[in-house]
Amino acid sequence: MGGTATSGLLCVVSDGRLLVIEYLYQRQFALKKYEMNTIQDINGFPPCQS
């Protein structure tokens, strides 16, 4: 996506698309759709240190 990045919760991978819930602000979230061929890399969050 032209060097942009996002973080969120990956909900569904289907038909070459990813559905991701992204945090906007306060209590607002957005469900965004990304075409698989536009994704360069997917990384999970690291585990919490205790």
What do you see in this structure?
This protein has no helices and three strands. With 50 residues, it is mainly beta. It has a domain of 31 residues. Strands 1-2-3 form a three-stranded antiparallel beta sheet, with no helix packed on it. 0% of the residues are buried. The model has no long low-confidence stretch (mean pLDDT 90).
What would you say about this model in short?
It is built from no helices and 3 strands.
Keywords:
50 residues; mainly beta; three-stranded antiparallel beta sheet; 0% helix; globular
Topology record:
Layout: E1 8-14, E2 17-25, E3 28-35
Antiparallel strand pairs: 1-2, 2-3
Give the overall average pLDDT.
90
Distance between the termini: 35 Å
Q: Give the ordered list of helices and strands.
A: EEE
The radius of gyration computed from the alpha-carbon positions, rounded to a whole number of angstroms, is 12 Å
- Overall 3D shape: globular
Number of strands: 3
Beta-strand share of residues: over 45%
Helix content: under 10%
Strand order of the largest sheet: 1-2-3
Q: Helical element count? A: 0
Name the quaternary structure. Answer: single chain
How would a crystallographer describe the biggest sheet? 3 strands, antiparallel
- Helix and strand content put the structural class at mainly beta
Segments where pLDDT lies below 50 for 5+ residues? Answer: none
